[in-house]
């Protein structure tokens, strides 16, 4: 499941924000580091908690931090030149 939810989260960043796949993966990893969470937890929060509005295994504080980060995204994203 972890791999599937990571792929879904990458797809969301690519589709909604026009982020290339490599940059989407790096962004998820950076957000995970910022939140003190695993990449799969951030991906789970993005896919199930934010996009689908469903209960998720993502901790509440990680989900709230992710919501704040998404409000600033892609302005803070480090996209390739």
Description:
Helix 1 (2-17) crosses helix 2, helix 1 packs across helix 3 and helix 3 crosses helix 4. This protein is mainly alpha-helical and 81 residues long. The protein is globular, with a radius of gyration of 11 Å. The termini are far apart. It has one domain (2-72). It is 70% helix and 0% strand. It has helices spanning 2-17, 21-35, 39-51, 60-72. The mean pLDDT is 86.
Chart the SSEs and their pairings.
Layout: H1 2-17, H2 21-35, H3 39-51, H4 60-72
Helix pairs in contact: 1-2, 1-3, 2-3, 3-4
Question: What's a concise summary of this model?
Answer:
This protein has 81 residues and is mostly helical. It has four helices and no strands.
Q: Proportion of β residues?
A: under 5%
As an assembly, this protein is: single chain
Question: Helix fraction?
Answer: over 70%
Assign the structural class, choosing from mainly alpha, mainly beta, alpha/beta, alpha+beta, or little secondary structure. mainly alpha
Topology as a string of helices (H) and strands (E): HHHH
Count of separate DSSP helical elements: 4
Average pLDDT value? 86
Rg of Cα set: 11 Å
Unreliable residue stretches? none
Query: How many strands, what sense, and barrel or not for the largest sheet?
Result: none
In total, how many domains does the architecture comprise? 1
